[in-house]
Fold this protein.
Amino acid sequence: GPAPPPAVGELSAEDLARVLRLPGLTMKEESVLLQALGPSLKSAPRPALLQAIRAAIARGCNELARAVTDSALAGLDGLGTEVALEALADLAEAGAPPDSLVA
């Protein structure tokens, strides 16, 4: 069925990637972004998640990168091994923290 609309204050992966490209993001804003990440990330399209991870890594926002990686991994449940492995490779390539890729 159609995905439920995101809850108020819930950031999509696309929004996150966009925000991370803004100049002058502070640590405080990073923690606000972390709190705004919601369950919808789990169902976000992988390209959007990869973009968000790349943007977070580029900014040195490792906590955010980890959170998005966790969501991406949670979204892989039940997709089958091949798809999951392919996704892991994509995540690693995007710069996802290696320790969060090892279940």
